[in-house]
Design a protein that fits this description.
Blueprint lengths: L2 H9 L1 H8 L3 H12 L4 H5 L32 H16 L3
Helix pairs in contact: 2-3
């Protein structure tokens, strides 16, 4: 796992724990933090409205149990493989 992801997990242990136990909003927030280099301010100010997760990045106005998982169409095959490996490791408890 690269240093950026480890530093995000270390800086946000509660968020990481919630994401690993099934919180969709926490998982989205961690994804956004990773995408924007770990900066909470950059997540708040993100202007990438094309991203299917953009409207969920702050978790406003949504109940976690009602949050649908958006279909992601513009992710590269390399990124999909990386995310699948992270998910697989986290399910095994190795992330």
């Amino acid at each position: 796992m690269d240093r950026l992801i480890l530093s995000i997990y270390k800086k946000h242990p509660g968020l990481t724990r919630k994401a690993r136990t099934g919180s969709k909003l926490s998982a989205i927030r961690l994804f956004c933090l990773e995408c924007l280099g770990g900066s909470s301010q950059d997540v708040k100010g993100c202007t990438d409205t094309v991203c299917p997760l953009w409207s969920y990045r702050l978790g406003k106005g949504f109940q976690p149990s009602e949050l649908p998982l958006p279909e992601i169409k513009h992710v590269s095959n390399e990124r999909k493989a990386y995310l699948a490996s992270v998910l697989s490791r986290s399910r095994k408890g190795n992330a």
